[in-house]
């Protein structure tokens, strides 16, 4: 920050000296009197150029100060964001949850995304700092390379000519105006370039942050959908299928009420499992797609009781389909 501030100060002093030298040599002596309309116009033009370059110089100073403050604040944001990323990563690695790792995985994804965002923010701050010192670097380069002709040298040449040729006010006035105009043009162009570069850097930063957040959101939504899909069979059973009937209820129901044309009086029949089912109590039966079940009873509330692979229990009736013909090898698997 001190280096940027010192370079900005040197830049302001140099521009001020150039302006003062031109105006002093052109109007400082008592014998330099405006004699006609043309010289009056030159005088007014120089005054406007002086005001323009001085205002632009102050604007450059304000820009440098603003960038310094932004860098200080942004550096603190990077520090806080990095700490948040590290805390999230630590939680994801430790994985203290006993029922799953969903939140831990989301924490790791967030830590990675936050780290990328803070990296992009750091790049933005570096770009801002580079733009703040670019003008001073150019001036330093000019001082180190005397052979390089620049607008500042044109101003110095105009000053020398003003000292040597005070009698020719018209010619000197034109050269002074041209030199100041060149200084103003360069000042405006360089400042505008710095502003455009800063805007482009900030736009790139926000675009990268948006990409990171979009990716993070997609990963978390995908994880949430995966969890919802894995829990959907249980949730469907809990919300849409009542629990299996008790022994007394089953016997009373099968003696009186038919279900889809099937009652206990129809006897046993074979059915093929078309949807897997995971038992939740010790009275229920685990089913896998392709298994065959001997169905003994069918309840009016959507449950059936039967035997599969030597085990008996209840299961949702909608998870099976009745089969009239079954291979002998499949029948053997039932028992």
Automatic annotation (TrEMBL):
The keyword Membrane applies. Residues 266-325 form the SH3 domain. It is a peripheral membrane protein. The keyword Nucleotide-binding does not apply. It is found in: Membrane. Its main location: membrane. It holds the Pfam family SH3_2. Keywords: Coiled coil, Membrane, SH3 domain. This is SH3 domain-containing protein.
């Amino acid at each position: 920050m001190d280096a940027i501030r010192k370079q900005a100060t040197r830049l302001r002093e140099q521009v001020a000296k150039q302006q003062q030298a031109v105006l002093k040599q052109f109007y400082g002596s008592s014998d330099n009197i405006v004699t006609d309309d043309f010289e009056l116009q030159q005088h007014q033009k120089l005054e406007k150029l002086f005001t323009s370059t001085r205002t632009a110089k102050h604007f450059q100073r304000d820009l440098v100060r603003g960038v310094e403050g932004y860098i200080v604040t942004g550096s603190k944001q990077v520090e806080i964001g990095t700490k948040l990323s590290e805390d999230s990563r630590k939680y994801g690695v430790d994985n203290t949850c006993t029922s799953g790792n969903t939140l831990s995985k989301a924490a790791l994804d967030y830590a990675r995304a936050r780290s990328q965002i803070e990296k992009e923010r750091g790049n933005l701050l570096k770009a801002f700092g580079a733009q703040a010192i670019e003008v001073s670097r150019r001036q330093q380069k000019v001082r180190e390379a005397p052979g390089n002709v620049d607008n500042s040298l044109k101003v110095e040449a105009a000053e020398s000519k003003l000292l040597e040729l005070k009698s020719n006010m018209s010619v000197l006035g034109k050269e002074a105006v041209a030199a100041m105009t060149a200084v103003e043009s360069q000042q405006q162009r360089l400042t505008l370039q710095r502003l455009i570069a800063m805007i482009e850097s900030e736009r790139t930063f926000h675009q990268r942050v948006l990409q990171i957040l979009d990716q993070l959101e997609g990963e978390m939504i995908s994880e949430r959908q995966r969890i919802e899909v894995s829990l959907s069979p249980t949730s469907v059973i809990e919300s849409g299928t009542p629990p299996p009937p008790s022994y007394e209820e089953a016997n009373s129901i099968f003696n009186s009420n038919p279900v889809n044309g099937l009652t206990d009086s129809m006897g046993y029949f074979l059915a093929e499992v078309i949807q897997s089912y995971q038992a939740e109590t010790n009275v229920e039966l685990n089913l896998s797609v392709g298994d065959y079940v001997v169905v003994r009873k069918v309840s009016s509330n959507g449950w059936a009781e039967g035997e599969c692979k030597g085990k008996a229990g209840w299961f949702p009736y909608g998870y099976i389909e009745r089969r009239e013909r079954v291979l002998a090898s499949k029948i053997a698997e039932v028992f």
